Amino acid sequence: MSKVKAGGSSKNIHDSPGQRLGVKLSGGQKVSAGGVIVRQTGATKIAGSGTYMSRNFTIHAEKDGVVQFSQIKKRKFTGKTERRTQVSVV
């Protein structure tokens, strides 16, 4: 008979750090060319004029200017329209 209880495998040790996603600059703030405006997973916000979207869906400023957010209607492949936030630099 064992005098010590068997040590089981721990289940709650795998923890990853946060990805630091979200809006980095709000509307009306100045941004320089190449600056990060929004970090996101998937295209929840879309790039407008003066901005571009990189491979990991991060929206960057294409030129120096002021950040501007606006609501637009975007048609999906199924024909349904959805409201999306468009990020642009003016």
How are the strands of the largest sheet arranged?
Answer: 1-3-6-5
Class by SSE composition: mainly beta
Radius of gyration: 21 Å
Q: How many separate helices? A: 0
Strand content: 35-45%
Uncertain segments are none
Number of strands: 8
Report how far apart the termini are.
Answer: 77 Å
Gross morphology? elongated
Oligomer: single chain
Order of helices and strands: EEEEEEEE
Q: Mean pLDDT, as a whole number? A: 92
Largest sheet: number of strands, sense, barrel closure: 4 strands, antiparallel
The percent range for helix content is under 10%
Quick take:
This protein is mainly β and 90 residues long.
Comma- or semicolon-separated keywords:
mainly beta, four-stranded antiparallel sheet, 0% helix, 90 residues, four-stranded mixed sheet
Task: Describe, in plain words, how this protein is organized in 3D.
With 90 residues, the chain is mostly beta strands. The chain is 0% helix and 41% strand. It has strands at 22-23, 30-31, 36-39, 45-47, 51-53, 59-61, 65-75, 81-89. Strands 1-3-6-5 form a four-stranded antiparallel beta sheet, with no helix packed on it. A four-stranded mixed beta sheet has the order 2-7-8-4, with no helix packed on it. The radius of gyration is 21 Å and the shape is elongated. The N and C termini lie far apart (77 Å). The mean pLDDT is 92.
Give the topology.
Blueprint: E1 22-23, E2 30-31, E3 36-39, E4 45-47, E5 51-53, E6 59-61, E7 65-75, E8 81-89
Parallel strand pairs: 4-8
Antiparallel strand pairs: 1-3, 2-7, 3-6, 5-6, 7-8
